[in-house]
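Why does this matter for the project? Reviewers at the last site visit asked to see concrete outputs rather than summary tables. In response, this paragraph embeds two records directly. Each consists of the residue sequence and, immediately after it, the corresponding structure tokens. Nothing has been edited or filtered.
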Amino acid sequence: NAEDVVFSISHPVPVVISVNPDSGLTSEKSIEVTVTGSGFLDGCVLHLRDPDSCEIVVTSGPTVVNEEGTSVQGTFDLSGLSVGDYVVRVVNPDGQSNAEDVVFSISHPVPVVISVNPDSGLTSEESVEVTVTGSGFLDGCVLHLRDPESGEIVVTSGPTGVNEGGTSVQGTFDLSGLSVGDYVVRVVNPDGQSNAEDVVFSISHPVPVVISVNPDSGLTSEESVEVTVTGSGFLDGCVLHLRNPDSGEIVVTSGPTVVTEEGNSVCGSFDLSGVTAGNYVVRVVNPDGQSNAEDV
């Protein structure tokens, strides 16, 4: 025949079965992926597309296809992309692409805590500002102090401020009424991810402070003189001493004491019989071993 009736031969449409890895982080500037399937041609490109709008959110660099056309490797720059699930598209040089919705997920990295400053506070502090350094902190994250044994949250920060690089976050803790001890710092991002590092924040009682003692004198003939010491930071179970200001030697120790609810006054009694006359300094020693420094 003389008629030019055409018979066309084309490459098969590419088919995508899987992608490995099937997820990445917004912090990754170059992640290599391997797509398996069939019909991949030299010079094909890889896309990640929004499944709703079909918009291409990222395109791979140069790709490498195996001889059988069943595997293709390429790299994606995920930095600055929105988190979510995207579909993988392989587009051959002839414009044909796969139709299968194989998913690649993008998420924020898990936050990492390196340090907290300050790393301690007092049970008397109603608002202590801390700065946590590390990486992966997102706007809207919250700070917790958690019991290292039970995992219980003992205090949560107020609103936080995160720097532009996500490497520093500031917040405040109300430590009033908390138990003394070591707690771990947790940064929890809005997506629910939190750090795993056990960076410690320690809570302790404040050092007792002595302002005055009443009466401020006694006689060597008194076997029981009751005194009231005023100041702050006195704990139940504290003891009163009179100490030699030169040697630091304890010359007399009180019997049982009574502390006010606010911890600003403590009563106890001294047996002054047989004590050498002179001036002595008053020491209040709490059960945790802390004592005042003032020479009242």
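We now turn to the second protein, recorded in exactly the same manner.
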Amino acid sequence: KTADSGEPARRPLITGLEYRFPPAQDKFAPNDARLAGALAAFGGGDLGKFLFETVAGLSFRTAEEIACRFGETGAFDMKTAERCYRFIGEFLFSEEKKPCVRYTEKGAEDFFVRPYESLGGEYRFFPSVDEAERGYFEEKERAGAFAALKNRLTECVKKEEKKYEKRLKIILEKQLDCKDLEQDKIKGDLILSNVWRAKRGDKTLVCENFYAENCPEISIPLDVNLTPQENAQKFYKRYNKQKRTLKAVAPQKEETLAELEYVKSLYSEIALAEDAAALKFVESELAAAGFLKI
């Protein structure tokens, strides 16, 4: 329960201090004959809200149900007020009981002594109110366990998805680094074809690129500490290294994409699971794949 900032000053709660009851509300007990006179003040509109504010002990939901069943929304005269007063007593003190739990698309919502027409939904009936209450809380507990398992499995899948996305990113970066490998081979070929034009100590070799259309001029950077032949071998080594890298990452990329697709498919399995048994199956599948420890 929350209280405004002035509440402690009005009613301090300290051990040993005399307790003071909260200020009385302007409400009447359902069996208080004065309630009929209070109901006569209803000027029309939201009867449920009016009953909640006027009748002591009513929850807003019960007030709404009484209003729904009574069926009057216009202003009350004294005759209608007295009829409403009797109706409230009959509703609250009736011996008729159909203990039940109300269900919506979210699951078990609440338990009641009898179904509430104002709420709709589906109802499951029980022999007693105690059993309805127990059934409701058992259902909420199952729903809580189901939601917790669902979240746990979803987080596990997210973790694996991030892992494979990171792996794929590394593979794609390696492929990107090798995009110019053919240029390295061409440069090695051109150096050997023009070896007579270069010597150790040269920073560049300028020659015609006979691999390109119209043989445009190309400037190839050289290592001044190497001979032309060694510079050519340097390009060939880089070309061969990149070629081996591409060959190695190709199956890795294919495997990672397949794993990523499988991991993403698990989201659908989790989302479509309607009960704990279905989730347990997904859990065992994740465990078998090594994604989760049970």
